[in-house]
Design goal:
Elements: H1 3-13, E1 25-34, E2 37-42, E3 47-52, H2 53-61, E4 71-76, E5 88-91, H3 93-109, E6 114-116, E7 120-122, E8 125-130, E9 133-138, H4 155-163, E10 170-178, E11 183-187, H5 188-191, H6 193-202, E12 208-217, E13 220-225, E14 229-234, E15 255-264, E16 267-271, H7 283-286, E17 292-301, E18 304-310, E19 313-318, E20 339-348, E21 353-357, H8 359-373
Parallel strand pairs: 3-5, 9-11, 14-16, 19-21
Antiparallel strand pairs: 1-2, 1-4, 2-3, 4-5, 6-10, 7-8, 8-9, 10-11, 12-13, 12-15, 13-14, 15-16, 17-18, 17-20, 18-19, 20-21
Length: 374
């Protein structure tokens, strides 16, 4: 009912004006949605209030039932300021803030774990808005799997990684409360504290674990074990061969099986390559100097090219061994990912070096043709 219609009814029926004062509590029943809010029949239909759209979005995001017929308790905002159609403007948020705040205090006192969903992000961390009460998860309090590790510290990249976390559920604990500012600091790390301690107590050198890639840097891959404990797979422990592009070894969020090879002062060293047999133990059994091998060109260097020979082990074809003609640039002789045939001319399993030659094949063919002509 509009305020003007209510006034006419009151005048015709000789009723007294309803006493509506600022921040007075009212009981209401949701009637329907309108273009810029929700209409509510207040105090058994004595007057109609409207919850403005901005508040409606926040309430719905936080799971408040605003379907037609739902019963609510609200407060009247300044009665002298009305909606454009004459309705009183009412609000649920202020009342909910009191309940939310008391609930937070109680859970902080008992160190209880909360579930929150970030609604905003800034370079300092993630923000949660619960009916106008601001919660904050600083970067330093994020679990390893969520921490935006950016090697060069590019703020734009960090911010974009934080934006990707908006809308996801986080398990957190309250670590600080500012009652005057109504500001709460949360920690995901603290919520995982017991789990972290349990995992650290069980970790042993030599054990294998299923982990999740939580970060990639130029010197290795970070892997989280059990969701809360993080270790590093150094680039030298990713594979027995050369790692040309570390990002091809896995993406953040991918599962990765690893083996613990070191544990010192809380730092965990992991290995991926030690989960399989060292191919260098098999190579001397399978190959001998003089063998002809077929492989794929995987890397150019100024002094030649590397060819994948066996498993992830590469052999070098030096510039001088690429052709029977002089070659200044490797790309003049072969292309990347091209399959080539070459002769094994060096096999040193102690220093782990393999030398290959395409030139030797030309010379062998030339010699064979010469003998055949005789």
């Amino acid at each position: 009912m509009k305020a003007t219609d209510l006034l006419k009814q009151i005048q015709s029926e000789g009723l007294g004006l309803p006493r509506v004062s600022e921040w007075s509590k009212v009981q209401g029943v949701v009637r329907k949605k309108i273009e810029n809010g929700i209409l509510v029949d207040c105090e058994n239909g004595i007057f109609t209030g409207v919850i403005l759209q901005k508040e409606v979005k926040d309430l719905e995001r936080n799971g408040v039932d605003l379907s037609p017929g739902a019963t609510i308790e609200a407060e009247v905002i300044n009665p002298s300021i009305r909606h454009k159609h004459g309705y009183y403007i009412i609000s649920i948020s202020k009342l909910l803030q009191v309940d939310v705040w008391n609930n937070i205090i109680a859970k902080a006192d008992t160190n209880e774990i909360l579930t929150v969903v970030p609604t905003e992000a800034n370079l300092g961390g993630l923000l949660v808005d619960m009916h106008g009460i601001k919660w904050f998860i600083p970067l330093s309090q994020l679990a390893p799997v969520h921490y935006p590790r950016v090697e060069d510290g590019d703020q734009e990249v960090i911010f974009n990684k934080l934006l990707d976390l908006i809308g996801k559920e986080f398990k957190v604990r309250v670590i600080s409360i500012d009652e005057e500012e109504k500001r709460i600091i949360l920690s995901e790390r603290e919520a995982l504290k017991e789990e972290t301690e349990t995992i650290l107590a069980e970790i042993e050198v030599g054990k294998e674990y299923e982990g999740v890639v939580s970060g990639i840097s130029s010197y290795g891959v970070f892997v989280t074990l059990g969701g809360s404990v993080e270790g590093l797979v150094h680039i030298s422990e990713l594979t027995y061969g050369h790692v040309q592009n570390i990002e091809r070894m896995g993406n953040v969020g991918n599962e990765m099986k690893v083996k613990v090879i070191g544990l010192e002062n809380g730092k965990i060293s992991l290995s991926r390559k030690k989960l399989k047999v060292d191919p260098w133990k098999e190579i001397p059994k399978k190959f001998s100097v003089g063998d002809i091998i077929e492989g794929e060109v995987v890397r150019f260097v100024p002094y030649g090219v590397f060819v994948r020979m066996y498993d992830d082990i590469n052999g070098l074809i030096h510039l001088s061994e690429l052709s029977n003609k002089a070659v200044d640039n490797p790309s003049d002789a072969v292309k990347l990912w091209q399959k080539v045939r070459a002769k094994l001319i060096l096999l040193d399993d102690r220093s782990r070096k393999i030398g290959l030659s395409m030139k030797a094949l030309y010379e062998d063919n030339k010699k064979e043709n010469k003998e055949n002509s005789k």
